[in-house]
Design goal:
Blueprint: E1 17-21, H1 27-36, E2 40-45, H2 49-58, H3 67-73, E3 76-79, H4 86-95, E4 104-107, H5 118-122, E5 126-132, H6 141-145, E6 150-154, H7 160-169, E7 173-176, H8 182-209, H9 215-233, H10 241-244, H11 247-260, H12 265-281, H13 287-301
Parallel strand pairs: 1-2, 1-3, 3-4, 4-5, 6-7
Antiparallel strand pairs: 5-6
Amino acid sequence: MSTAQQPDPRDRPARLAVGVVGAGRVGPALAASLQLAGHRPVAVSGVSDASRRRAALLLPDVPLVPPAEVLQRSDLVLLTVPDDTLPGLVEGLAETGAVRPGQLLVHTSGRYGAKVLDPALRAGALPLALHPAMTFTGTPVDVQRLAGCSFGVTAPDELRLAAEALVIEMGGEPEWIAEERRPLYHAALALGANHLVTLVAQSMELLRAAGVDAPDRMLGPLLGAALDNALRSGDGALTGPVARGDAGTVAAHVAQLREHAPQTVAGYLAMARATADRALAHGLLKPELAQDLLGVLAEGAHGTPGSPGTPGPHGTEGDAG
């Protein structure tokens, strides 16, 4: 949890005029958070109806204007557009003369560092990459969730303190990420957060197919405990049939998935192989049990039946997951 104290905007006048280019889920929430810290949102751009609604909800009375006008009005500009859109947007704004010298230009892409802002830097802007490591809903709850949220920060050395100060003012915790490490940093977050949603959604679908009326209620405590254990203990938290080497149980899983949800088989096998590798490397999976297990996974990958329903020689059904 962040120990940073949020400034009371009543204690001092607003310092920076803040603009948002791209009223997706992220930009309005960050601008609203900066407003709580004493800054003043002055303009936002958004094209879709959903973007306009988000802007109205989180930044009421802030005018919607074209991107160039957002830059004209703002001391600090948040470029909160999709990753693939960002380079072209920066180049376009710089080429049209929209960027002003001394203007803080902040993007929130996880993939890119500060170099993607080089066209604006040549125009005199001050480039910052501030990526909040959080999923956003586009609602006011996002502003609350920023408290204690880690931000991946990349900026020129002379702007490092300014970047970190902005993150702290939003209630976040700055984590310095080197320019060349940004893609790896972003891949790590996508692997953990984005794929987690897919895994949980698939798990709920399978539970419904198995007759569970409230899969969310069943999974909530289990997944909460698994996440907490993983964050505390890393690979030491591995459990379940793969980590135990229960080849027969895994074969039964593959057979059932192939029958009832064939679209999940490839993902199950890939995660099971990765889990087996980590369990072996950390001494959790006995080598003598790993051979049968890896054989089942190889057979499953080629669509050949294993031995469904047959428990492994040392297998149990004791723990969930």
